[in-house]
Amino acid sequence: MKVAFHFDADHERFDRYDGIPVIKEIFDRLTQEPGELYLKIFTGNIDVLDYLREKDNREEIQKGIYRAPRPVWQSLNPKFMDYLYNNKIFVVAFEGINSRFRDILHNTLLNDDTYLGAQQLHEANPVHWILYGASVVPMFRINGKKLSLLYSIGQEFEWDRALVANLKSDFSFETIEFEEISVSHTILDNYSSFEHASRVVNLSNMLYDHLNLLADQLMLRLTNLAPELYGLMYDTIIEFESLDKPGGLQKAAVAGKNLLAKLAAHITNQRDDNPEDYGGKILRHISGLAGENRQNYLRSQFQEIDSCILRFSSENIDNDLDAIYQGDRLLVCLIVFVNDLLESAV
Q1: Is 215 in the same domain as 330?
Q2: 233 and 145 housed in the same domain
Q3: Mean local confidence (pLDDT), 36-48
Q4: Structurally, how many domains does the chain consist of?
Q5: Contacts for 68-73: CB closer than 8 Å, 24+ residues apart
Q6: E-state strands within the chain
Q7: DSSP letter string over 35-85?
């Protein structure tokens, strides 16, 4: 998800500082997060005047802002369009931001007099691409506790060492350094085009739709075939919401193990009197299914999930980013496996 946060750049608070006060305010909130984040941060000013000269059609701009090709998250100031037409707007956009931190940051910024609201970007929308695609460029990358200032090849002379020193004095990042991103987001970048941005957005949407359909199918099967597992699935997913907290991955693994134990009892019509034997029950059930290919597929799925659960339950993964990745991967595998096993039990 890519979300843009907007600010009135003509406000006196910005006085010659080119958005630095806002960036520092955002970093102050970022560094309060208990877990670790992986984000690419874009900044820049959006100016609608050139677009108005070409199109001379404010209705087209308003339609592009408020009616993206598909529903997107949006919480803009009611007077946002007035600011867009009459003021310079500074944007800080986050690529890779999740909905939880998006909401935290939005609610924090509501106390800022310069804040004009935020919206999810959909760069297959021509208006979004024109306003943000070329004007809002990558400036920072956050990788856990490490901060990088991004620059394109040949821009070494533009390194802002004073900004680095300022950020080091104000924030507790482990490292703050410069990172070259080659010709990305320049006129030499073959992928910096509306066509490529549309393909990326459409691919993301297709993946989202497929995963969303899978989740819907699982919920439907649980409701119809195993309603007693519905609440347990909910409790399991809740545990996976805390992967960025100490011990979060271990707790999620235990929740996954409990889910598999209940699933084993359901598909074998046996009492859950020996939950530790869930693996034997599931494997015996798989062995009784028709089709060797189906058996091998489900067996390999289960063995991968079970080995992850055993490992995550017993070891501490110190790197929060790795814990989040491993946990998310385990959750997707669990959802796919539970869905496939319930389907095979029909």
Answers
A1: yes
A2: no
A3: 84
A4: 2
A5: 68/122, 68/125, 68/128, 69/122, 69/124, 69/125, 70/122, 70/205, 72/119, 72/120, 72/121, 72/122, 73/1, 73/3, 73/99, 73/102, 73/119, 73/120
A6: 2-8, 37-46, 74-76, 89-95, 115-120, 137-144, 146-151, 175-180
A7: S-EEEEEEEEEE--HHHHHHH--HHHHHHHHHS-SS---EEE-TTHHHHHH
Looking at the fold, whether 68 and 135 belong to one and the same domain comes out as: yes
Contacts of 297 (CB under 8 A, 6+ apart): 340
CA atoms lying within 13 Å on the CB side of residue 278: 21
229-247: pLDDT as tens digits:
878 888 888 888 877 777 8
Task: Indicate the pTM of the whole model.
Answer: 0.69
Give the model's confidence band at 156: pLDDT under 50 very low, under 70 low, under 90 confident, else very high.
Answer: low
Q: How does strand 175-180 pair with strand 146-151?
A: parallel
- What is the rounded distance in angstroms from the CA atom of residue 208 to the CA atom of residue 192? 23
Task: Report whether 227 contacts 234 (CB < 8 A).
Answer: no
The reply to whether 186 falls in a domain is yes
Q: Locate tokens 């209705």: which residue?
A: 59
Position 235 scores a pLDDT of 85
* Residue range 52-85, pLDDT digits in tens: 655 556 777 777 777 766 667 889 999 998 888 8
The edge-to-edge listing of strands for the beta sheet with 89-95 is: 74-76, 115-120, 2-8, 89-95, 37-46, 137-144, 146-151, 175-180
Residue 117 shares a structural domain with residue 241: no
Same domain for 110 and 222: no
Q: Give domain status of residue 101, yes or no.
A: yes
The range of the structural domain enclosing residue 151 comes to 2-192
Q: Which tokens is 213 given?
A: 């359909």
